[in-house]
Specification:
The protein is an all-alpha fold. The protein has one domain: Serine Threonine Protein Phosphatase 5, Tetratricopeptide repeat (Alpha Horseshoe). It contains eight helices and no strands. The longest helix is centred in the middle third of the chain and has 21 residues. The protein is globular and about 45 Å long.
């Protein structure tokens, strides 16, 4: 009788932990290089189309974010592959409509890597898009304008594509 009570209590604790958000722990594979760790995180991101089921969607978000966090945690001093991990994490938050978290990550990237132009561009662009979604239109416009002003003369096609998008979004009329 006592064993059955202990088992019932254990089941109750597990159920409460699950409902309380403890949920599954994600074991992200570790790789020997920052490059390989980032490639894994990017592959994880590409494999995740946001589900309409809230529980599955939450797991997808957490596992993908964890993959990028693993790059940052394991290779904090790497200046080639860790900075894009911040941008990737911001993109994941944005894709899953977690705009406030995206803003935090993009701001961190801006502060940590002021000398990395590509990181600055994509962080500013991510901040602009995220603030647009949060209806912080003045902030969004200031970030679009900063992207345009800072990177207008960069001739790379990828950069010019972002600048063209910023110009269109900067000029869009918004209602508050």
């Amino acid at each position: 009788m006592r064993l059955r009570g202990i088992c019932a209590l254990a089941v109750l604790v597990v159920c409460l932990a699950w409902l309380g958000g403890c949920g599954p722990r994600f074991l992200i594979p570790t790789f020997d290089t920052a490059r390989d760790q980032l490639m894994f995180a990017r592959a994880q991101k590409q494999d995740q189309l946001p589900s309409t089921n809230p529980k599955i969607r939450s797991r997808q978000l957490r596992s993908t974010v964890r993959a990028f966090e693993e790059v940052i945690k394991r290779f904090p001093d790497d200046i080639v592959y860790t900075p894009p991990a911040y941008i990737g994490m911001g993109e994941v938050y944005y894709t899953f409509h977690e705009y406030k978290d995206a803003v935090k990550v993009y701001r961190t990237a801006l502060k940590k890597y002021p000398d990395q132009e590509d990181i600055q561009l994509f962080a500013l662009y991510g901040l602009a898009l995220s603030h647009d979604q949060l209806r912080n239109y003045e902030k969004a416009q200031s970030y679009y304008k900063e992207c345009i002003d800072r990177f207008r003369d960069d001739e790379r096609e990828e950069v010019q594509k972002v600048i063209r998008e910023c110009e269109v979004l900067y000029r869009r009329v918004r209602t508050e």
